[in-house]
Design goal:
There is one protein chain. This protein has 180 residues and is α/β, with parallel strands linked by helices. The protein contains four helices and ten strands, in the order ββββββαββαββαα. α1 links the parallel β6 and β7. The longest helix has 15 residues. It starts with a strand and ends in a 7-residue tail after the last helix. The relative contact order is 0.10.
Length: 180
């Protein structure tokens, strides 16, 4: 059974009579179509029918999660390890994740692109890290930082909004200038 619209290549057992197959897309068109892309060649005279995948895409799209640490050099090593063996002509997205201490700098996505981007047709970095804020640490703090954290945490914001505000505010309280 040949199926369509599902954009990733997949072949699975239908029943005792055969298989169902999604050929996927011949060429990845976005980061949501990571993996090898191609077509299926099916010889209907063959019994049992065995779809054969033929790669047609000029480039393969890769998406890699990388767990960050507070140590930028360690994070860069993890990115390097994730990229090992990826052909130069391919397209890559690095998705940074994990929790970082509020006093540690956020991962520098531009630096990662500067270091590794020249090795690939296209490389981008998405920062999905979150601040590791524990409100109980600031509950009794009679400092400006404590008051700031308490107010942001009590404001009823989404986690993403809280993270963004806390990141900028804590950086400002440390005397760092950051482009918003």
């Amino acid at each position: 059974l040949a199926l369509g619209h599902y954009h990733l290549h997949r072949v699975t057992s239908l029943d005792t009579r055969g298989v169902c197959a999604y050929s996927g897309t011949p060429e990845g068109r976005g980061m949501d179509e990571a993996g090898e892309c191609g077509v299926l060649l099916i010889d209907t005279a063959e019994s049992p029918i065995r779809p054969r995948f033929i790669k047609t895409a000029r480039r393969t799209i890769h998406r890699f999660p990388v767990e960050v640490t507070a140590d930028a050099a360690e994070t860069e090593r993890r990115v390097r390890d994730a990229l090992a063996g990826i052909p130069r002509e391919d397209i890559v997205r690095i998705e940074l994740s994990g929790r970082i201490p509020p006093d540690a700098p956020r991962p520098n996505a531009e630096r990662i692109v500067d270091i590794f981007g020249h090795n690939y047709f296209y490389l981008e970095v998405r920062d999905h890290t979150r601040l590791d804020i524990r409100p109980e640490q600031y509950a009794d703090s009679l400092t400006l930082k404590g008051e700031f954290v308490r107010r942001v945490m009590a404001a009823g914001l989404s986690e993403a909004e809280q993270d963004a505000i806390l990141q900028e505010g804590l950086a400002a309280l440390r005397g760092e200038e950051d482009e918003v």
